[in-house]
């Protein structure tokens, strides 16, 4: 029965000292490598489910799902568009000192901004601030009065500039139209 018992430590005593150190180091690195591989697979599982943050500093056009998925509070709306694309969507209440709220899109990330003064303030362009983004709508010099007012009360200014800066990057500007109304 004496030979049936496994004694691993007695085997180590038969190996010389340098070989024991090397064997211990290899075993330690093997265990450590297994732990690191498990940590990487867990972090991949977490990052795949988490929301990606866009680092783009260029505006992307808003689509219908962006607007409905990120509701803004207010009874009247202003939009900044260039061509057929809407880049800025803002809503506010009339005759209030409360904030107007808006959304911009960078890459796939929609960001909210706000400005004091409600609809009355934003109708003629104003400065909007949000987390890591600042946007300003300026009407062109000849755009003091709306180009047209529709039957529904919507006002379209012929030309405006949307200037914005994100994440301490360079300032960018986009030429387009600023339309406000119900």
Mean of all residue-level pLDDT scores: 75
Q: Give unreliable regions as ranges.
A: 35-52
Distance between the termini: 94 Å
CATH topology group of the largest domain: Lipocalin
CATH class of the largest domain: Mainly Beta
Outline: elongated
Tally of domains: 2
Question: What is the name of the CATH architecture of the largest domain?
Answer: Beta Barrel
Number of strand elements: 9
Summarize the main sheet: 8 strands, antiparallel, barrel
The proportion of strand residues reads: 35-45%
Q: In percent, how helical is the residue content?
A: 25-40%
Based on helices, strands and strand pairing, what is the structural class?
alpha+beta
Placed side by side, the strands forming the largest sheet appear as 1-2-3-4-5-6-8-9
Q: What is the string of helix and strand elements? A: HHHEEEEHEEEEE
Can you tell me about this structure?
The chain is an alpha+beta fold. The chain has two domains: 2-49; 64-181, Lipocalin (Beta Barrel). The chain has four helices and nine strands, in the order αααββββαβββββ. It has helices spanning 8-14, 17-49, 64-69, 118-122, and strands at 76-82, 85-92, 100-106, 109-115, 127-130, 133-139, 148-149, 155-166, 172-181. It has an eight-stranded antiparallel barrel. The protein is elongated, with a radius of gyration of 31 Å. The relative contact order is 0.13. The model is unreliable at 35-52 (pLDDT under 50).
